[in-house]
Amino acid sequence: MKEFLFTKEDYAGFCENKESLVQQWAYKQLIKFYPNSETTYKYTKKFIQPKMIKKIERMKYLIMTYLRENWKLIDSDFLFGLVEGKTEISFEMQAHILRALAQKGKQKNKIVNLLLQIDGRQTNVNTFLVVIEALEILQTDEAYAMLRYFDKDLSSPFPFMESYMNALISYKDEKDINLILETLTKKQEKFDQEKVISEFNTLFKAEEFSNLFMNFWQQQPLEDSLETLKYYYPQNKGVERLNSFLGAELCSLHQNNQYFDFIFRLAEKIMAELNQRYNFSEKLELDNFDLEFLNKEKEKLREEDYWLLYLLNFILDNKKTIQQHFSVRFFSLELVVMLLVVLEDNNYQKMIRKSKEDQDYLWQQITLDRENLPAALVELFLESGDVFEDRIIKHLKNNRYAASISRMLEYLIEINSVKAVPTIIELVDEKQSDLVCEDAVKALEKIDGYSFETLTAGLEAGDSTTHIFVSSGLEQFATNQAAGKTIEYWENGILDFHEMFVLTLQEIGSKVGYDYLVVEEIQNLPEYLLETLIILGTIHGEEKDRLEVYKAELTDQKAARKDNGLFDFFNQSAGGDFNSADENDEYSRNNEGTIIRTEEKVGRNDPCPCGSGKKYKKCCGR
């Protein structure tokens, strides 16, 4: 641990301060620097109680983030103690704790029993979604039984039904698959059919391509989509072969809206490829392709190929329904995704089996031009120790925009690779995607032991994107030196966003930062600056009268903001039995069923209140 201005005991003392902003700040430092310490557990237990969450602004989101991002580090017994003991916590927070335990993968039946104790009649939609997510992670018979108990025939009125369907799809029960597809065709007005169909791509490891076409492909011509694919996956074998197959003639069919002709041509190609892959008892062709054929040949098929053909059969058998109730263009692009993964020809079961025996083979598979690989394969990679460290650093230097970057960074976090830090910083620039930049910064936050000079040298050598993202690394150094450097960067224009500058100083916690921010005239100062002055002034012993002036101005500004009615940001329809018993003053429903914020502000990096699991800035805060 680096030499900081404050010790763990200092932060614990600040957690006892009467000022709620200081308590919130101190707890955030504990979960950042000491995520698995007894001191952090002590204050988590204190702050997780509803009366404390209601009192302290944003504390709920700090705890939710802590559980979501640090579940590997947090002690299982501590988490079980929270939901089994006498600590009074809300149903929503119980759900988040049990989700973290589900990810840890131990005592799964015990987790299900505890999930059963969450009263569905007294939970909000957000809580329900987290419960569904936990049940999807568990993948046990008991978890499945609880999941199916919620809705036997997909007729419940609760919102976000697509999330429930997606959880069911993950269990790969054919009765559920049939029911979902049938429901989509008969009650198409109730669901986002395209979103649910896209979830089927997880069954044959094509979700990342599906995400691409959901974001880009439906808004651009097929030829441009192929260029997008080549840009994102320059070394992917399936992309290369797909580009060769989809020549001018097929692109012309698609351009002229002859989608079913296009679909049949791609279906024939998929079947031809699989006929070469398998020795079927009779050749697979459009004329004989049905579920009877599929079930007869099931034992020969890889699991991914079976589910791909299962969905293909649905598309081909429901031409009339698709024409009437779905987007045929959407399904034409779905066939592109299917063909891509068939041409890619990844045998995941073989990959996992051979990777257990041969590290060089594991390296070949883990560097495939793919963002998503089977969890079992990635786990083998993460558990392999530091044998790949040098290879990964070299790989990142030579493949700065590779699809494999995320899991490479995860590995470097796992082994706490200090020597990889300069390379990680170099990943962040204006040509890089925001997602990679965020993953790189997350790695910088998690890796401990690198020098302050390493961080600042990389930051100063970078461009404006580097400055925006990597400057958050300054927050990992709670030192006067870091505060002084932050001020220098502000004055020299390396940091040019005032809120980011102030909040960086707040995170560092130095009196150097406080002294720089202090001004005589406080009227109309931004709220974030007033809050920072209160926090830093309190922990560094500012006179009480001066602190009261800051607090009064902050109270006046919040009151004015509330009067302006700027809090309606989150729309969601009311959902049956999901009432507001678990909601506090932070959110309430108006007469139309819309959830509105009535008190506190959600931070951009906090979990989104909609329950999606994404950060607010990546979801409802866009």
UniProtKB/TrEMBL annotation:
Q: Which domain of life is it from?
A: Bacteria
Pfam families with a match to the protein in the record: SEC-C (PF02810)
Q: Which InterPro entries does the entry mention?
A: SEC_C_motif
Q: What is this protein called?
A: SEC-C motif-containing protein
